[in-house]
C-alpha cells in the first residue's frame, strides 16, 4: 500500500488531531480509494493540477469529515 502523507514534518494541533478520521478495523479500503488518494498526492504540489476541493459522498456517520 502507498504512503499518502502529504504533511510530512508538520505537527498537527490538538484540534486537528481530533478531526483526523480513525479507520475502523472493519473498513476495507477499496481500489478506488487508493486510486483517488494517489492522484491527490501525486498532484498536490503541481500548481496546474492541485486539487483544492474534494466532494465526498456517503451516508451520515461514514467518516466524510
Question: What's the short version?
Answer:
By secondary structure, the chain is mostly helical. 29% of the residues lie in helices and 0% in strands.
First-last Cα distance: 23 Å
The geometry reads as: globular
Q: How can the largest sheet be summarized?
A: none
**Number of distinct helices:** 2
Number of strands: 0
Structural class: mainly alpha
Q: What average pLDDT do the residues reach?
A: 80
Strand content: under 5%
Secondary-structure element string? HH
- Share of helical residues: 25-40%
Radius of gyration, taken over Cα atoms and rounded to an integer in Å: 13 Å
Enumerate the spans where pLDDT stays under 50 for 5 or more consecutive residues: none
Topology record:
Layout: H1 14-19, H2 31-43
Characterization of the model:
The model has no long low-confidence stretch (mean pLDDT about 80). It is globular, with a radius of gyration of 13 Å. About 30% of the residues lie in helices and about 0% in strands. It is built from two helices and no strands. The longest helix is centred in the middle third of the chain and has 13 residues. The chain is mainly α and about 60 residues long.
Q: Which terms summarize this structure?
A:
29% helix; 2 helices; 65 residues; mainly alpha; globular; 0% strand
Amino acid at each position: 500500500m502507498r504512503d499518502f502523507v502529504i504533511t510530512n514534518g508538520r505537527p498537527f494541533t490538538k484540534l486537528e488531531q481530533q478531526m483526523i478520521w480513525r479507520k475502523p478495523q472493519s473498513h476495507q479500503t477499496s481500489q478506488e480509494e487508493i486510486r483517488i488518494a494517489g492522484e491527490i498526492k501525486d498532484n498536490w504540489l503541481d500548481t496546474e493540477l492541485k486539487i483544492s476541493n474534494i466532494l465526498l459522498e456517503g451516508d451520515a456517520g461514514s467518516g466524510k469529515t
